[in-house]
Amino acid sequence: MSHAGSTVAPPEDTSVLAALRSPRRLKTEVLAGLVVALALIPEAISFSIIAGVDPRVGLFASFTMAVTISIVGGRPAMISAATGAIALVVAPLSREYGLDYLIAAVILGGVLQIVLSVVGVAKLMRFIPHSVMVGFVNALAILIFTSQLPYLIGVPALVYPLVAVGLVVMVFLPKLTTVVPAPLIAIVMLTAATLVFALQVPDVGDEGELPSSLPTLLLPNVPFTLDTLSIIAPFSLAIALVGLLESLMTAKLVDDITDSRSNKTREGWGQGVANLVTGFTGGMGGCAMIGQTMINVKVSGARTRISTFLAGTFLLILVVGLGDIVALIPMAALVAVMIMVSVGTFDWHSIRPSTLRRMPKSETLVMIATVAVTVATHNLAYGVVVGVVTAMVLFARRVAHLTEVVDVAHPDENTRVYKVLGELFFASSNDLIHQFDYIGDPENIVIDMSESHIWDASTVAALDAVTTKYAAKGKTVEIVGLNASSEERRDRLSGNLGAGH
């Protein structure tokens, strides 16, 4: 909750130089980066499996995405890496055509993200309603939790107490001290316990082979033809749109958490640049990761680009230089971290009975639609699109009934004055034609529009139809009180839209 004087965070809150001058803040950024790197390892491996590629492809993508976006991105402290959403998009391409086509699609997807961002697609974020944002956050929390279930089903019984201990550490340790992030303590403690007591439980090494060399620059081995373009273009467009949507939504969420504003356009083309770098180094592409971003910003308290840069750097050091040690980390520790992330991400206030009673049913329906579609498809883009469309339909239905035509005066026996109240657009103006008494009205009709506004051609066509119907009865209509923009629109379109009916 923001308080007076903190609605906009001061610039130094996200300044790299300020963090470098403050040992306390620098330590926070370094430790946050380390925790995120540890959490990224199993995620990147599992997303590689979803995409049908070698674990190295997801791990290298996470390294290059995080390091690149820390430099070119518009939202400090946000984490970008290989993601499940992108993995789901590219999986069919990878299965049918192989890794080279996947990399080519990622490179083209990065180019499309840059182009879309430069032409202003980030500005469309203003059209995403609050209820869709809440649904987006809640759906992500559910997906983060359900993605941990495979590590909790059909596993040795020892996994459950280890997860429980990890959760207890992360819940209660911050009440005693925040010197070191609780997730890092939990990971170290559980790893030490499994080694000291030789516990036989699944570990990171079981998820796949870790790379032993650095990523190198490469060009995808595909023919540069129109046939290749026709194969990869649909996947590239999906990568660009899903990546932008998830990244911009995550950036907005971090803005809200940190009481600051970020450059969404820069974040958009920064994601494109990061995907270009990732493609040319053999990675599977990616976008912002809300789970790891929440670990970084909300759990660990990071605020600058340092944590994002170090998350990628530590990831590479851990998997390439210390792979044998990282492989020993029990999956139970990382599952506990991700469960805490899911609990912290979910907007519990949104489902309180008191909130649901006060909230309009349409807002609740939009939130539920967003959550349901996202969870059912495991695709955030589908959920957000359905949520926005649902909100638009419900809004149009609601405002369609807010327009009213009132009989306000009878200056003489041959004149009747109507006043139109409300905003007039395609949904609300459809009923306009039926709200006049064409037969019973006198010869002169005045329609006062001083308390309404014409927004589109549908309204002009409706007014033309009203005028035509009165003219057919030998009656005249005068429209008065239009504001400047409404009058300009009517003058430009009236009589040019076909016959009114």
Automatic annotation (TrEMBL):
It is found in: Membrane. It comes from the Bacteria. PROSITE patterns: STAS (PS50801). The chain crosses the membrane at residues 30-51, 57-73, 101-120, 127-145, 151-173, 180-202, 222-245, 313-346, 366-395. Keywords: Membrane, Transmembrane, Transmembrane helix. Pfam families: STAS, Sulfate_transp. Gene3D superfamilies: STAS domain (3.30.750.24). InterPro entries: Membrane-Transporter-like (IPR052706), SLC26A/SulP_dom (IPR011547), STAS_dom (IPR002645), STAS_dom_sf (IPR036513). The keyword Secreted does not apply. Residues 413-501 form the STAS domain. Its main location: membrane. It is a multi-pass membrane protein. CDD domains: STAS_SulP_like_sulfate_transporter. The keyword DNA-binding does not apply. This is SulP family sulfate permease. It comes from Rhodococcoides corynebacterioides. The lineage of its organism: Bacteria, Bacillati, Actinomycetota, Actinomycetes, Mycobacteriales.
